[in-house]
Structure formats: structure tokens, C-alpha cells
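Working notes for the structural subgroup meeting. M.R. asked for a predicted model of this chain before we commit to crystallization trials. I am recording the input and output together here so anyone reviewing the notebook later can reproduce the run.

Input as submitted:
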Amino acid sequence: MAFMFFKSSASRSFFIALPIAFAFSGLTNLNEANASEHGFSMGFNLELNPLDDTPFIDDAPRATDNRHPAWFSETFLNLPEDLARARLKGKKGIILYFGQTHCAYCEALLEVNFKKEQDIVNYTQQNFDVIALDIWGNRIVTDFDGNELEEKALAEFERTDFTPSLIFYTDDGTEALRLRGYYPPYRFRGALKYVVEEYYKAESYADYMARANPPPKFDLEDMNEQAFFEVPPYGLDRSRFAAEKPLVVFFERHNCHACDILHSDPLEDESTRELLSEFEAVQLDMWSEQKVLTPAGKRSTAREWSRELGIFNTPTLVFFDRGGNEVFRIDSVVRLYRLRGVLEYVLAEGYESAPSYQRWREIMQQAEINPESTDS
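Returned structure, recorded in C-alpha cell form:
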């Protein structure tokens, strides 16, 4: 397998794990009756530590099989019909899984969340039919608006730039949540609960996660510093004059294990640092009151701005063009090759020439194989 589990110090576990364990009480209540009520076996880790369950993903190009679990549902290639079948079975709705072969992040979802974590498997099966679609597939799918599209066209329309991407639909066809990229088990449990228990009707996913994962009372460790980060004051206004460089804002937080992972191999890579030198790069603590003049020219704080942007996961990297328009974001687990690819995509302004990040990568790969095909 291409992943292993990180372990962190006990001191960090104490201050971070407890708020999440009790906020997601429906998932982590310490008695068998409640676990049974929510469809969980008592085999899942009751001392859930979000710092410990993020798998290491080697996203270097390589062959992966990524076979879907046998419990995934066969699709009618008609989403209203797939949803109707789920309703007849008493399910809460369906999950559309957009994936591809040779995707290390899809492998992590299928092998960890949907295989190793049996409580996630049980809870997902109990509440959803999971429909698998190939972002490069040619099968014709009828969407909820009656449009007939090839799988790859539907993937582009839904902007599934990162695989795996999951879209949660409720039993009436309402889109309740979408996740782009891989999320480790503890966050995935939170996403399932958010949809199943209908929190989406009352609050955004960002607000839901903020309640479940509040800032720690004590900052036990500083955030990771990098020489390429700008220093305050943060005047990021691009509303009147275009900047010389595109902007990337790293929204992080103290005591963030996923942030530590990002700052290890991916951001220590020399080629990544060379690409980042072409950006204006800013690091913000999403919970802080650090003053910021946003790219739109609005005076704000890091906390207010992250809320406006709907940041719900750390680290999240938000990319802006020279004119201050958001053009891309990474809000899921990212390793070296994916990060490097996104940096190249933004620098090349690939969002102007291709309908999606994946399509742009395909065009670039074809150009490398047959350079003459791109000559005009």
C-alpha cells in the first residue's frame, strides 16, 4: 500500500482530539446503545485522534488498480432512477463518486475510509447508495436536469478537479455537500453526520466544522514558518491595480498535523519552492484576528475572511490571479505531485484555456508526448 499512519505527541492529542470527539457526539459517544443507534459497530476507535488518522499518500505517478468495493451500487446511468432506487431501500440519498485509475488519493479513500474503517463502511451503506463514475468515462449519464452527458462531460460540468470527488444528494435530489479530494477518516465521519443528520438545513459545512473543531485553548506549538511567506501587514488589495504575481494564501492553524505534513515533504521540495517563488505567498491562522486587506480591497481579519471564503479544513490553499479573482483552491489532503501540478496550472493560467484542472493536465501530457500536435 502507498499509505501509512502518522502518530503525534500526546500533548497535542489532548487539546485537539477531545473537542472533536465530544462535538461529534453522534459518532463518538462512549456507549454501545448510541453507537448502535447511529449504525456503528463498537469496533471503531473511541479515542479518535484526528492527528493520527491522516494516511501518508505517495502521489507520484504510478499504476493503481482502484477497484470499487463490492458494496457500491450498480448505476442505471440515470441519476433520478438511481435516487429512486435508494429511496425504495430506505436510504437518505446517494453519493456520486468521481474517480479515476492511477489516482493515489482515490486509492486512499477506497482502501482506508471505505475498507479499513468498518464503521464508515457500515454507516455509509446504511444511509447511502454510492454510485461510481469515471472522470474519463464515455458512458452516457442522465443527470437530475434530464441532460444526457458522457461521464467525462458530467465530471467537467461538476468541476471535479480533484479525484476522488464526492457529491452527496438527499432523498429529494438536493445537493447537501461536496468533497473535492481526499479527506481522512475523522473528517469523513463528520461529513457523513452533517448530511445524514441534516445539519446542512441549518448551517454551512464550514460553520458545522468550526463548532466541531474549535481553536485550542492553548497554542502548544507555533505554526510552520517558511522563508517565502510575506510578513505583515498584509495588504493584498488587487481591486484597483493588478499585481505582478498571482497570490496564494495558506489558511492554517496551530496544532495542525495536516499542516505539519504539508510543510514537510511537499514544501521542502526544491522544485516546489522554485514555483512558489513566482507567487506572492501569505500564511494566515484561520482563527486569528490578524488584520488583512483582502484582494477585493476589503478590510477584514483572518478569521472573518476565512469564514467568508467558507474555509472548513486546514490547511487550505486559496489561489488568486493578478486581478484578485479566486481561481482555484486546495482544501483536502495534498502531497508533492498534486501540489506541484496545481502551482504549474495557476502560473500557466490553465483555467483560461481548459474547462478543468484535470483536462488541462491531460492537454499538457499530450503535448509532452507529441509536441508537434500543439504547433500552430
